[in-house]
Each structure stands twice: as C-alpha cells, then as structure tokens.
Amino acid sequence: MLAAAGGIDVTETSRQLPRHSEKAAASGKIRGFLLPPLTRRRIPPGPATLSKSRERRSGACPNTTALASLTSSMKSVRIYHNPRCSKSRATLALIQERELEPEVIDYLKTPPDEAALKALLDTLQLEPEQLVRKQEPLYRELELEGQGAGEIIRCMAEHPILIERPIVVCGGEARIGRPPERVLEILP
After folding, report:
1. Ordered domains of the chain (ranges, CATH)
2. What does the pLDDT read at residue 1?
C-alpha cells in the first residue's frame, strides 16, 4: 500500500508474484493459470485510515490501549525464592515455562518483616508452625517447637532460612511450591 494525498492507493492481485512473472501477470497468464489483471482502486480518507497513518508516522503501536488493558488485567506473580534450593529453582522454571515473568524475591537477601509474614500466612491460610522449616538445625537451636505463633513469626523474620520455600503469590492466592506443581493451581 502506498500513502497518497487524500487517501490510500491500493494495488490488488490474487497472490504475490515473483519478479520475473510481472510481464506474465500483465497478460493475465502464468504457467497455464488465469489471473485477474492488476487493478487499482482508491480508498477515500476516513477516520480509521487517518489514525492508522498517524500511528505509523509517530511510531506508536496500533494496539497500545488494548495491550495496556490486557496487561493490567493479567495477574502478577511473585515468588519468594532461594536460588540454592532445587524445589525453588524447579518452581521458578515452571512459572517461566508458562511465559510468565514473576517478581523474584530472594528472601534470604531481602527477608519479609513480621507484618509481611503475617500477610503471607493469611494468604496461604496456614499457621506459623506450618510455614517454618522444622528440619533446619536453627529450628532446634532456637527451640521453636511448642512456641507461640508470635515467637515463631519473629524468629522467621530474624532468620529467613527458617521460612519454607518457595512461596508463590498470584491473584490474591498463595501456595508453597512443594511439590512445584502445586503452584499451577493459582497461575493464570
């Protein structure tokens, strides 16, 4: 299509032809097939053609508003991740296989505070003793067995290695990725 003043000039044919067949196309015959001759018609300018022309000139994406509404309606995915944990790596890979780009939080470097842990526990619908890693030597050293919820949350905030991993949050729901396939329940 060529832009012309006051409209768009369109060249139509029933199919694209190789360069050497232009002469044959003008006669209407190509290797025994009859093709309609090239025709030209003029499309009058209208709001749709003018806005598309402006978008092309400005470099804007024609579907910018559609794309913006789609991405705003998509669920964001957050993973509390430990790169040294095989289950955490497998869960992250599972999320990325679904072509999602999660917000990755290395919770050992940036641990959640007590308020964030309480919010995670509410979203997970778990008690603090269900989120703590009981097999960690630090769990025994701190003698957390039988402690109250507040003490366990405080210790998890101070020692994030005690937090079970990975935790995936998506669309107001959360799952612990053990096994990693459990997170599929909440992913879009």
Report:
1. 2-72 (no CATH), 76-185 (3.40.30.10)
2. 44
